[in-house]
Write a structure and sequence with these properties.
single chain; 439 residues; alpha+beta; Cytochrome p450; 6-stranded mixed sheet; 3-stranded antiparallel sheet; 11 strands; 45% helix
Length: 439
């Protein structure tokens, strides 16, 4: 999409496959013994407690999204793993009943998550085609080759932290370190001009945040699509040694390429997922290590690695809380709950990450020696497993090791309980992270 227009609600509806009506589907909801649906707090407050309430309510729990749109949240590890790889759970919005029958209000702020063209809203052969084109150029070798640049960017940001300190000596680490590192990496990788980075971050914050008004989110959707359309056109006119140029040039054996809309949708996915999740991951890891310094000492003593820190953070405090959307293509019983066809489903990674059935009675405890460290689902599972997982892991491990090596006495400037939550039920982190670099 290069004209700056919003993606229409029926963007992924194939003309040859209209959505058939379903009796009672105007307001889909899970059916499992009744009870009022849980209303997801748009501000992200009390995440762990809210997740515990959802898990206690069941593996698949009726919830209300903004605009009073019914959905379900999949909250337990085993059932979420099943759903993420289920052959009858789809990603395409052509299966989203309420999006096409008038239930979803106009200008609904979560529409973009359902309708953007790209891998996250594609199924079957369409998904394999799109993912294949991206994996052809976003290779493990390309990611590994980024390490020297990530180390260089990290060192530069660490050099600048003392100069970013406020009058009281505190540094807002989320703003001055956890954000610019992944945003700088993904924008350099995609060939995005440095002048656009802060605005792209502001727009993605509005889209991922779930406390803004529908008008604000709709305007952000329009603007970010327009900006990324301009990026794509610039790289099409003047190709470089960047991923966007490679995506434009990539084609399958039969000559199929990403369409203009698919390219912008792919850039949108990579910009948002490529920095928001890593920003939250670094923030959450620093908060956890400063809150429980015994865990930090285990790493320093060689009893755990920085890789272990990253994996335990992903499990214990997933950067993503409730990711939209998936849809059963027929009525399905999942985790003892009957979910009607076309019901939007949220993958509740933060809730599943602390599921006692998967991680034992101490699932709420942050433990860098926990084994196995990588059984969490925070990068997904199945066909839609996150392509950016190796890059996020690389950035986070480099960042955390360098940060605590340079500033070994770094600590929170306020108690962790006083840190305001990031205003979103999609992202999971704090809004700020004030620290002191020295004791």
């Amino acid at each position: 999409m290069t004209d700056g227009q919003p993606i229409s609600d029926d963007a992924r509806l194939p003309a040859s496959a209209p959505l058939p009506p379903t009796p009672g589907a105007a307001c889909p909801a899970a059916r499992s013994g009744g009870g009022a649906p849980h209303r997801l707090a748009p501000g992200g407050a009390g995440r762990a407690a809210a997740d515990a309430v959802l898990r206690e309510a069941g593996a698949v729990v009726p919830v209300l999204l903004p605009g009073e749109v019914p959905a379900v949240a999949v909250t337990r590890h085993a059932v979420l793993r099943e759903v993420l790889a289920h052959p009858e759970v789809a990603k395409s919005a052509c299966h989203f009943t309420a999006l096409h029958d008038g239930t979803v209000p106009p200008g609904w702020p979560l529409t973009l998550f359902a309708t953007v063209d790209g891998m996250t809203t594609a199924d079957g052969a369409d998904h394999r085609r799109l993912r294949g084109l991206v994996t052809k150029v976003f290779t493990a070798r390309r990611v590994a080759a980024l390490r020297p640049r990530i180390v260089e960017l990290t060192a530069g940001l660490l050099d600048g932290l003392p100069g970013s300190a406020a009058a009281d000596g505190t540094v807002e680490l989320r703003r001055h370190f956890a954000y610019p590192l992944p945003m700088g990496v993904i924008c350099e990788l995609l060939g995005v001009d440095a002048a656009l980075r802060d605005r792209l971050h502001e727009l993605s914050n509005l889209i991922v945040g779930t406390s803004g008004t529908a008008a604000e989110v709709q305007a952000a959707n329009v603007e970010i699509i327009a900006v990324l359309g301009q990026v794509a056109e610039a790289r099409r006119a003047d190709p470089g040694d960047d991923l966007t140029s490679a995506l434009i040039a990539a084609q399958e054996e039969d000559g199929d390429r990403l369409s203009a809309r698919e390219l912008v949708g792919t850039l949108l996915l990579m910009i948002i997922a490529g920095h928001e999740t890593t920003l939250n991951l670094i923030t959450n890891a620093v908060r956890a290590l400063c809150t429980d310094r015994a865990q930090l000492e285990l790493v320093r003593a060689g009893r755990a690695s920085w890789d272990d820190v990253v994996e335990e953070t992903l499990r214990h405090d997933s950067p993503v809380a409730h990711f939209p959307f998936r849809y059963p293509v027929r009525d399905l019983e999942l985790g003892g709950t009957l979910v009607p066809r076309g019901t939007p489903m949220l993958a509740s990674y933060s809730a599943a990450g602390r599921d006692p059935e998967a991680y034992g009675p101490d699932a709420d405890r942050f433990d860098v020696t926990r084994r196995p460290a990588t059984r969490h689902l925070s990068f997904g599972h199945g066909p839609h497993y996150c392509l950016g997982a190796p890059l996020a892991r690389l950035e986070a491990t480099v960042a955390l090791e360098a940060l605590f090596t340079r500033y070994p006495a770094l600590d929170l400037a306020v108690p962790a309980a006083e840190l305001p939550p990031h205003p979103s039920f999609i992202g999971n982190s704090t809004e700020v992270l004030p620290v002191r670099l020295t004791g």
